[in-house]
Backbone:
């Protein structure tokens, strides 16, 4: 099979499996099968014959994707802000809307000398690592209740060489967040209601860890516990589901937070909320 034939074949297999971005994903999987060559190079070699090993490897990758395993788990890495993070089934794949969470968090850290940050439910470590990457003096305590997620976050920390400014701690947020006077509490908590799990895409529903997705009340628990974990004047920044903004805003006001702001994602949906703890 030539490179060109392989791309056409892969596109067909993935489209049949219901994948919208079939051509792009076929290119990425073929590039991985060809010893991680650059995707653009494939187009310079459309008539080249694949080696038997590359062909076999490509078929195996296509079969995984056709079973709707997420592309990020198959590739083993995924981009998040300026970083490339290791990704696998131990933790949620970092999402574009979470990049906005980081952007809002960084705005509140701007001008703070050596800010201290608490990342609740760190997963791959995406938020914590992006913050220390983009704020040269920030220190982040990153907690998660999942041992698996923390192991992956540790690998990302080591790979990126940002050890020293991120502390990973196994901790369940329902036990509270302590009284450490953080400058910022940031979180992308699990916010899919248990009854909604069946409505999600198979990539999410069948492959990403349930503990990262499903919860009833995690957002409220973070907002409540952050009132004790923040210093007066500190900020909380939370990712929310698109239908959650009004409820979470009400909750934050009831708890005594001020200066609320909701930010939309690229599609205009309200996905990030922030508020100041002024007491
Ligand atoms: C939606 S994922 C977010 C992961 C990562 N921060 C990101 O944005 O890509 C939620 C994370 O919260 C963790 N988690 C769920 N319940 C928790 C709890 N009760 N205490 C601490 N962490 C929890 C999950 O293990 C998961 O890593």
Residues:
């Amino acid at each position: 099979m030539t490179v060109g034939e392989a791309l056409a074949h892969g596109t067909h297999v993935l489209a049949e499996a219901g994948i919208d971005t079939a051509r792009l994903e076929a290119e990425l999987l073929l590039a991985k099968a060809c010893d991680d060559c650059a995707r653009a190079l494939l187009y310079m070699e459309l008539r080249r014959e694949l080696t038997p090993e590359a062909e076999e490897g490509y078929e195996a990758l296509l079969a995984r994707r056709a079973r709707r395993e997420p592309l990020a788990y198959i590739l083993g890495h995924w981009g998040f802000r300026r970083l490339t993070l290791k990704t696998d089934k131990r933790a949620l794949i970092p999402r574009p809307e979470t990049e906005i969470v980081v952007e809002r968090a960084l705005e509140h850290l701007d001008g703070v000398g050596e800010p201290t940050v608490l990342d609740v439910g760190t997963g791959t470590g995406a938020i914590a690592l992006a913050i220390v990457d983009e704020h040269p003096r920030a220190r982040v305590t990153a907690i998660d209740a999942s041992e698996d997620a923390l192991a992956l976050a540790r690998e990302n920390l080591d790979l990126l060489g940002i050890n020293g400014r991120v502390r990973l701690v196994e901790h369940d947020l329902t036990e509270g967040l302590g009284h450490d006077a953080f400058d910022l509490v940031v979180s992308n908590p699990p916010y899919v209601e248990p009854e909604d799990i069946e409505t999600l895409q198979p990539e999410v529903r069948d492959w990403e860890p349930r503990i990262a997705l499903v919860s009833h009340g995690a957002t409220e628990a973070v907002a409540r516990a952050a009132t004790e974990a923040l210093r007066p004047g500190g900020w909380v920044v939370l990712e929310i589901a698109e239908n959650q903004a009004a409820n979470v805003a009400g909750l934050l006001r009831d708890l005594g937070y001020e200066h609320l702001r909701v930010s939309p994602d690229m599609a205009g949906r309200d996905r990030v909320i922030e508020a100041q703890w002024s007491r």
